[in-house]
């Protein structure tokens, strides 16, 4: 026999839950359900549970969303949240912008992907050509995900696997051997010669050939073996060798030949023979640091464009952070006016905190900052009182 | 049996037990909190007060016998000595002949050995004999790129920047042996000699490795979850491993098995803050010394 308390609870459940269920379908009285139809429908929507994401009365976020950005998505997709923290994380994922690639309600594609996914890719990667004279097949079809992972990867460039393995997932080894009959040694390191997107050269070989490579392989290889390590490069590139006699040098990285940490010995997209864009190459070792600054509100345009070499001398430098000059000279190359008419800087102006010269980077952090003008601290007070303590 | 109305002995015993447990818990939390926040600023070696400000220090050598600190002022091309109390004693320029000194040690014969980046050399300075000699270290055909250096029991240990391996040199400065880490794909960036072997740091793989006295790998552990760009390591008196992060400008502490303990310090220019730190080491008097290239000083912290 039920007691009064039990009857009250059951009655409450019987009344409240149907009201809640009815409430969600009420949404479609105004927001036409057909608008949200598609081949793939987001599960909460398919179940009529709009309130899984939206507050029907009032909310802090646009669209009456309960949470903002990826916080809302990860409230259900918790497993993915953990998985997406591993290795290199795609920038939209890191900044919680799931809707760059996904539709929140419905889509014609699995995974609620936007219709033209490659359009989403090129929306951010706008410097990539849409096509080349010779275009890699998956690239021409906008199938970026053939080689890349969209959320995160433990491999560089968000590849699905090590570069050679990605190539071999489509291109059979025996076919490749036929196309490289004079290759000295085992075929490997495809990307040292080929641009995986496309090129103006047949076979999507990269645009600029390293001179010894263009003249044959014997300058560096002998019977399939590479001659020497870093010294093999520096015996020709003497200026670089001299530049590396500095307080800080990039004579570092994985492998026996340190030059190949950044450069391809065979072919490159430009005469620098870098393995990728400047940002891509630098990110190979400095991913954590670059990612930290990418999330800042204000960034120097050159840092935003990934032109690291504008300010950094990448072979060798006697400056902190391998800068090309001291904290004034490096900036006034471009900011000439500020070099002449500004807060006192220079050798005669001493930073009271350190006893060293006040420079532009005593106040500014061009890599990225959350304060306008890339100031290190807020310019209204916090920055000034670092030195002017009496105020 | 009730002690008073509504209160039984059993209830009182329960309350006393819970109170004791609470008191013990508070004690444990308080002591561990104190242990996690131990380091306070003690001294700064910068030479500014004497009008000889250090420009860009890259290393610190400590002479326990003489109770002196020697700062390698790479930007000023000199070696600057300080007393244990932090007073500047002398700035040695080797008659202006040093070219980008980077690290130094003193051998049993009191000769100073300096790694000079500008000459890619190991340079001996015999102050008494007033003699400066430069040596290019070779291993067969290959020229080494000396980076960090240490000296123990008559043996030089020199980090070769190009290979990321530690060269053990014989008395004639020829390479006797190599210490390398097979588990380190990018090579060693710093090392410290201790009583229980050699501790080293792999920068790009973000690993701490320990070798025995013969150079055999004993163990390694990953520090990448807590460190962004490790540049130096030191082993504390209790066996904890201190890893210096150059970009985040803090220090992460791990136990000898790699268990994370805490981080401390932060980026900045004021006392107790770091800017482009480059080396960390313990002095014989319990001080934790951090060489800051960006701030032109060495800060000494103590408990």
Write the SSE topology:
The complex is a heterodimer of chains A (391) and B (303).
Chain A: H1 4-26, E1 40-41, H2 43-46, H3 70-74, H4 78-83, E2 88-89, H5 91-94, E3 106-107, H6 117-124, E4 134-135, H7 137-140, E5 152-153, H8 163-168, H9 173-179, E6 198-199, E7 208-209, H10 211-214, E8 221-222, E9 225-226, H11 230-234, H12 238-243, E10 248-249, E11 267-268, H13 278-294, H14 301-304, E12 316-317, H15 329-332, H16 336-340, E13 346-350, E14 357-358
Antiparallel strand pairs in A: 1-3, 2-5, 4-6, 7-11, 8-9, 10-12, 13-14
Chain B: E1 2-4, E2 7-8, H1 9-36, E3 40-45, E4 57-63, E5 68-73, E6 78-83, E7 88-92, E8 101-106, E9 112-116, E10 121-126, E11 131-135, E12 138-139, E13 142-143, E14 146-152, E15 155-160, E16 165-169, E17 175-179, E18 188-194, E19 197-202, E20 207-211, E21 217-222, E22 230-235, E23 241-245, E24 250-254, E25 260-264, E26 266-267, E27 273-274, E28 277-282, E29 288-292, E30 297-302
Parallel strand pairs in B: 26-27
Antiparallel strand pairs in B: 1-2, 3-30, 4-5, 5-6, 6-7, 8-9, 9-10, 10-11, 12-13, 14-15, 15-16, 16-17, 18-19, 19-20, 20-21, 22-23, 23-24, 24-25, 28-29, 29-30
């Amino acid at each position: 026999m039920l007691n009064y308390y039990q009857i009250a609870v059951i009655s409450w459940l019987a009344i409240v839950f149907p009201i809640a269920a009815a409430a969600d379908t009420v949404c479609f009285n105004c927001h036409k359900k057909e608008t949200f139809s598609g081949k793939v429908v987001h599960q909460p929507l398919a179940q009529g549970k709009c309130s899984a994401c939206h507050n029907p009365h009032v909310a802090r976020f646009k669209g009456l969303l309960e949470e903002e950005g990826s916080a809302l998505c990860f409230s259900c997709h918790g497993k993915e949240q953990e998985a997406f923290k591993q290795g290199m994380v795609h920038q939209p994922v890191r900044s919680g912008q799931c809707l760059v690639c996904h539709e929140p309600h419905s889509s014609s594609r699995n995974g609620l992907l936007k219709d033209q996914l490659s359009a989403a890719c090129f929306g951010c990667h706008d410097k990539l050509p849409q096509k080349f004279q010779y275009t890699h097949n998956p690239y021409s079809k906008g199938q970026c995900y053939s080689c890349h992972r969209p959320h995160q990867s433990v491999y560089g460039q968000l590849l699905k696997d090590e570069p050679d393995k990605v190539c071999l997932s489509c291109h059979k080894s025996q076919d490749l051997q036929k196309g490289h009959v004079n290759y000295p040694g085992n075929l490997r390191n495809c990307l040292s010669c080929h641009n995986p997107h496309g090129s103006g050269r047949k076979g999507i070989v990269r645009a600029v050939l390293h001179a010894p490579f263009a003249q044959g392989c014997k300058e560096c290889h002998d019977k399939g073996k590479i001659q020497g390590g870093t010294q093999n490069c520096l015996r020709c590139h003497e200026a670089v060798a001299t530049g590396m006699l500095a307080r800080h040098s990039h004579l570092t990285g994985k492998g026996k030949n340190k030059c190949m940490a950044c450069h391809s010995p065979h072919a490159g997209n430009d005469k620098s023979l870098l393995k990728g864009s400047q940002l891509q190459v630098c990110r190979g070792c400095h991913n954590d640091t670059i990612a930290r600054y990418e999330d800042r509100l204000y960034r120097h345009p050159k840092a935003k464009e990934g032109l690291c070499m504008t300010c950094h001398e990448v072979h060798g430098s006697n400056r902190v952070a391998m800068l090309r000059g001291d904290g004034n000279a490096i900036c006034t190359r471009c900011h000439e006016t500020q070099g002449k008419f500004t807060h006192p800087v220079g050798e005669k102006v001493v930073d009271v905190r350190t006893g060293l010269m006040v420079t532009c980077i005593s106040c500014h952090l061009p890599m990225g900052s959350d304060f306008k003008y890339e100031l290190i601290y807020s310019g209204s007070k916090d920055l000034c009182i670092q030195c002017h303590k009496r105020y | 049996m009730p002690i008073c109305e509504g209160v039984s002995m059993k209830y009182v015993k329960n309350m006393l037990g819970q109170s004791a447990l609470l008191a013990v818990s508070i004690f444990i939390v308080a002591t561990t909190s104190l242990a996690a926040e131990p380091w306070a600023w003690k001294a700064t070696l910068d030479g500014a007060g004497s009008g000889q400000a250090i420009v860009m220090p890259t290393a610190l050598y400590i002479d326990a016998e003489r109770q002196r600190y020697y700062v390698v002022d790479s930007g000023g091309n000199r070696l600057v000595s300080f007393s244990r109390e932090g007073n500047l004693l002398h700035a040695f320029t080797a008659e202006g002949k040093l070219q980008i000194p980077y690290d130094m040690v003193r051998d049993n014969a009191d000769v100073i050995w300096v790694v000079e980046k500008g000459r890619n050399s190991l340079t001996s300075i015999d102050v008494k004999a007033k003699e400066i000699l430069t040596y290019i270290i070779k291993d067969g055909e290959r020229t080494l790129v000396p980076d960090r250096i240490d000296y123990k029991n008559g043996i030089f240990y020199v980090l070769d920047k190009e290979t990321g391996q530690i060269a053990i040199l014989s008395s004639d400065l020829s390479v006797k042996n190599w210490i390398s880490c097979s588990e380190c794909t990018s090579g060693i960036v710093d090392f410290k000699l201790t009583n229980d072997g050699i501790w080293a740091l792999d920068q790009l793989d973000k690993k701490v490795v320990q070798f025995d006295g013969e150079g055999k790998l004993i163990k390694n552990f990953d520090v990448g979850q807590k460190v962004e760009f490790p540049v130096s390591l030191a082993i504390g008196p209790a066996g904890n491993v201190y890893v210096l992060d150059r970009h985040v400008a803090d220090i992460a502490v791990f136990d000898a098995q790699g268990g994370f303990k805490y981080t401390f310090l932060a980026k900045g220019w004021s006392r107790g803050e770091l800017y482009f730190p480059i080396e960390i080491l313990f002095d014989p008097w319990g001080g934790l010394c951090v060489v800051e290239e960006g701030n032109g000083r060495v800060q000494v912290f103590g408990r």
